[in-house]
Design goal:
35% helix; 250 residues; 5 helices; four-stranded mixed β-sheet; 11 strands; alpha/beta
């Protein structure tokens, strides 16, 4: 809404080779809190110490350096420079696309064009690097959702017809950074477009996992027995995801 006062401030900090977006919230709280969010690192500062923002930013930077040493891949999703050069993404372990981000004179919110296996992402001229990253990711995600919706539905139908025979009320694809998929109590399955970056055999595990929730809407031992009955080696897929998840994003 125009004129609405923001309750946060955005800045950047340098952590090794990464220029990391930092969003600073000043709140009524007892202690500072630092967390790695979807698009930014979140720094929450108590109102009573708001005059020491530089000190808290330095604390956040040191914390991120420690985290990065322990989990080098954690800050990769903030690597803005990857949207300033051509790069390649692989979908379901088979389809490769060359991404090219280009600035143009426009007040539009962005545009993406697909020709053969090349994606041209057009962003407004002079856009901030952080906004460029978010805009490019959203454009790519929406394009991939449209292009692969039918395939995802066909794979869900394959696994459902063969092992579950449940009434799936609907399938949607949308970007989600916190999970690979979900299943609602109304039997609707949502798959994160990030899942399209998985190899096909791991992607199939995500589908089996969500379909298993149509049998057991929980993560009890009964649920995992359903998964194992359909996919006895599912733990291999779990292991692959654990080892590679942090580097998979648009």
């Amino acid at each position: 809404m125009k004129g609405k006062k923001l309750n946060y401030t955005d800045t950047y900090v340098t952590v090794f080779q990464y220029k990391v977006p930092l969003r600073i919230h000043i709140e009524r709280r007892a202690n500072i809190r630092i967390a790695v969010g979807k698009d930014t690192v979140l720094l929450r500062i108590p109102v009573f110490s708001s005059g020491q923002i530089d000190k808290h930013v330095a604390t956040a930077t040191e914390w991120l350096k420690k985290v990065c040493k322990e989990q080098p891949q954690l800050l990769e999703k903030y690597h803005i420079s990857k949207y300033n050069i051509n790069r390649e993404v692989t979908i379901l372990g088979r389809d490769k696309y060359l991404l090219e981000v280009s600035e143009h004179n426009s007040e539009l919110t962005g545009e993406i064009r697909l020709k053969d296996n090349k994606m041209l992402i057009l962003v407004p001229n002079g856009i901030d690097d952080f906004d460029k990253r978010v805009m490019a990711r959203n454009l790519i995600s929406k394009l991939m959702a449209r292009k692969y919706k039918k395939l995802v539905e066909e794979r869900i139908k394959y696994w459902n017809d063969r092992y579950f025979q449940k009434d799936v009320k609907g399938v949607t694809l949308r970007y989600n950074s916190t999970n690979w998929g979900s299943c609602s109590t109304t039997s609707k399955i949502n798959i994160s477009t990030r899942s399209l970056l998985l190899p096909m055999e791991v992607f199939d595990y995500i589908l089996v996992h969500e379909l298993s929730h149509l049998v057991e809407m929980n993560h009890s031992d009964r649920f995992w027995k359903v998964v194992e009955r359909v996919m006895p080696d599912y733990e291999k897929a779990e292991k692959w995801i654990t080892e590679n998840a942090m580097r998979l994003d648009f």
